[in-house]
Amino acid sequence: MNIGAKIKDLRKKRGITQERLAEYLNISAQAVSKWENGTTLPDISYVPKLVSFFGVSADELFSLNKSMTDKRILHYREEFYRLRKLFDTDGCIRLMEQALSEMPANYEFMLDLAHMLAQKDEKPRDASRIISLCERILDDCTDDNLRYPAIELLCVYYPAAGRKDEALAMLDNLPDMLIEKAFWKERVLDGDERIAQKQKNLIFLIDHVVSCLIYLSSNGFMGMSLSIEEKLRFAEAALQIYSTVFYKGHKSPNSGTFRHIYERMSELYCRLNDSEKAINCLSKAAEAAKCYDDTIDSTDNYYPIFISSVKCRHDERCYLDTVRLLQLMDKRESFDAIRDTSGFNAIRSELMRYIEASEFNKKQE
After folding, report:
1. Which pLDDT tens digit goes with each residue over 96-127?
2. pTM here?
3. Which of 121, 172, 318, 343 has the fewest beta carbons closer than 10 A?
């Protein structure tokens, strides 16, 4: 079987049209048709892309060593983690674009690129690229671990593109939250395993409630019609709920949420021209960020009795929360009200000292 016939055979087995293959390769459908008809042969530059797209062995298609592709995937994955930990969003975007130029059917790279594009701008001027990437994942990928995050992004960007009805129709086909597997595990497991699962679910629900309170008070949601004092009530409610389950000052991954809440409260107090409370909340945000960063390599159990059976585990894509806070302090206009104060500069200096001394930071250099 010649190369063109092999491409046609692989394409049909996977239910892919010539147009879809051409789109991945950034060529015309006519070019694909000529390959399959034996009129022309693929340029050598398309060899690694075709191998990756069809997921075949090297010997099966162009005698390309599959282990080489695996090494390239690992290289891109490790570099992506490194750039993301440094909050280099533009670098992550360029890297994933390069990765997809080599491996156009790698759905994990597609999802990473979509997330980075979404992170670059809260409301991108043109959401079509994010939508296109996510739709490709839903059309061709069967891995729910990638499909569901793609659906989550589409729920944000479909409405922004005037496609709200499509978003709702897509959601109608998904299960309700309470029949998600983590909640059903509560019924299947028993003894200590059931307790641990219930506590994991408690963490998930508390995180969700707190996130809702913070984002509801932002200008993109209810915040447009709320006073500053009312927004503070949302943030204070989030702090009270979170403090009920998690201990402030305890070194755990959840310290990152305390940082977010205090950071939000500090910004609101800045807008009220209450410098003392703004700096106080910012100081607490810095302490929470350091608590978060101190647990990067930790797998200890949580201390609070409500979640004592769950281990503190950082995601493999963890980063220095202190770096994140420092960047926000430097960029957010809301902090201009306290930027020239001794308290603000003392917090900033302490964060810089912590970051410079961090073992995690040294590993990234």
Report:
1. 999 888 777 788 999 999 999 988 765 556 68
2. 0.64
3. 172
Distance CA 330, CA 339 (A): 9
The CATH architecture assigned to 66-174 reads Alpha Horseshoe (1.25)
Q: Is the pLDDT of residue 27 over 70?
A: yes
Q: Is the fold of 3-54 the same as that of 66-174?
A: no
Domains of the chain, by residue range, sit at: 3-54, 66-174, 182-364
Q: In whole numbers, what is the pLDDT of the chain averaged over residues? A: 82
Specify the DSSP element, H or E, that contains 108.
Answer: helix 107-120
Distance CA 198, CA 208 (A): 15
- Taking the C-alpha atoms of residue 280 and residue 115, their distance in angstroms, rounded to an integer, is 33
Of the options 3.40.50.720, 1.20.1600.10, 3.30.450.20, 1.10.260.40, the CATH number for the domain spanning 3-54: 1.10.260.40
Residue 63 to residues 6, 8, 44, Cα–Cα distance (Å): 13, 18, 12
**pLDDT class for 91, splitting at 50, 70, 90?**
very high
Q: Which of 246, 320, 255, 254 minimizes the C-alpha distance to 284?
A: 255
Give the model's pLDDT for residue 317: 41
Question: What is the CB neighbour count within 10 angstroms for residue 131?
Answer: 21
User: How far is Cα 166 from Cα 352, in angstroms, rounded to an integer?
Assistant: 46
